[in-house]
Amino acid sequence: AIPLVIAKSTALSAKHGLLIKNRTDFENSRKITTLVFDKTGTLTVGRFEVSRLKSLESEFSENEIVRLAAAVEGSSEHPIATGIMEKAKSLKVSVPAAQNVSAITGKGIKGNVEGTEVSVVSPAFIKEQFPSLHIDDNIQTGETVVYLVVGKTVAGYIALADQIRPESPAAIASLKKMGIKTILLTGDNKIVAESVSDSLGMDGFIAEVLPHQKLEKIKELQSRGEFVAMTGDGINDAPALAQANVGIAIGSGSDVAAATAGIVLVNSNPQDVVSLIQFGKATYRKMI
Ligand code: ADP
Ligand code: MG
């Protein structure tokens, strides 16, 4: 039988947007010393809108950049893909189908469009492949930037903006008051990671991390004696969510993340992480 305090707490949790799938994760929530946040969709709204477009080669107009980028993003569920598809729609660009589309893990996506290889990739990937191009000059504070590569040419870039969720500042401040360290972990660029981390007063950020590095980071924190919770939304967050002492998935995220995590934030609200820890403490204090 489920002890009454837990049954009560579970019902209360549901009211506060928490789905407790694994009781051990719930029990462990009161011991958290470090909370690692994935950026997109938890601390930010998770809706990317194209804010700027730039052609770097005269044969590619801005519409052509959107058309080719949208062709490869058509089958992706990444929030960046959604933002680019919306831009194509608003420009009324007719988007061709791409063939052999595949992810470049943690760095972008590629496919064949009208006989040419087209990819939409991170600044970090461009730095590796085109070391002479100046990338950082093209990124403004708070922007996520992706480059369009057509054949061997860097055709241009698309800047997208997401918004910090209105609930995030209070959530981070509450965690700080509880003595919990907060760290931002993201595959996105350093400039946007730093601006989110600084504006929320977090203890630090780790940017441009590849999916397998997310897992390594959790292990590293644990080996330093931290009791780690992680929030995440993507398929690529699943290994890190499984490794964390408390795995927290975002309701608006992928099913894989939700299946791996012990707790789901139904409303994707970071304030509900604070409720989780408070409920965990209240519940297990009563039992002892
Ligand atoms: P996170 O979930 O932390 O944002 P991801 O691994 O999903 O990290 O993405 C890391 C980076 O890889 C993105 O910021 C972007 O530059 C690039 N990327 C990933 N998927 C796509 C995509 N579908 N289209 C364009 N760029 C992508
Ligand atoms: Mg993600």
From TrEMBL:
Coiled coil: none annotated. It is found in: Cell membrane; Endomembrane system. Belongs to the cation transport ATPase (P-type) (TC 3.A.3) family. Type IB subfamily. This is Copper-translocating P-type ATPase. It comes from Chitinophaga silvatica. The lineage of its organism: Bacteria, Pseudomonadati, Bacteroidota, Chitinophagia, Chitinophagales. The chain holds residues 336 to 623 of 678 of the full protein.
